[in-house]
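haha ok so turns out i had the wrong file open the whole time. this is the CORRECT one, sorry everyone. sequence first:
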Amino acid sequence: MSKSCETQLKALQQDYEDFTYIISHDFKAPIRHIKEFTRLLTDSLKPHMGDDETLYTQFIIKAVGKMEDMQTALLELSRVAAKKAPITLINTQDIVSNIIQSFTANNIIFETTQLPDIHGDTTQIEQLFTHLLDNAAKFHPPQSSITPKISISAHDDGQMWRFEISDNGIGIDDEYHDKVFRMFQNLHPDQYAGIGAGLTIAKKIAEHNNGNIYIKPNDTAHQTKSGTTICFTWPKRLHPSEH
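then structure:
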């Protein structure tokens, strides 16, 4: 790549990051104002509101809540590339164990192999695993007799570590494997809550650290369509200074 093209690419990337930050940060106050004044208006008119008016205000409150979630997700996304945190040696076994503790009330079975220590930003590693485990825990058939199970493993791929998070949920058809990593893509908005941002943020974190993230194709030879395995790679670094 020529220097001019590289300069243009860096400029476009910076413009994108600036735009994302402005959208996510500067929209916070207007959203908060809409939420607060809607609450004040609803409280003052509640004695005079009929069923239709009550329904309309519920729609507004729900929409504002979604806007807040989207704003928070965009801010988190913008901080991935902008944040300059110290690179340290991280015990991923401890991080995953701590995240799993938050799922104890959800009747999920977790299986974890020995996970390696890696170099990186602790906050970003926590975000990465949190989003992937949240995603694995969420998409299970409602009222299913099958107990949700999530497996976390790591594999030595030479210059990279490959982590795999597998679940026995509803699965993702091969045609949607790229789409689910796009921002605000929830394939089942009517059945499952969420705005579809977690996998996008996870992808941004992995790629920002010279890794990759992808969904393992379904095993069509054995007609295995249920469940999903998301893999992400992370470079091996002997010293934090190599980052």
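The beta strands are 88-91, 109-112, 117-120, 149-156, 160-167, 212-215, 228-235.
again sry for the mixup
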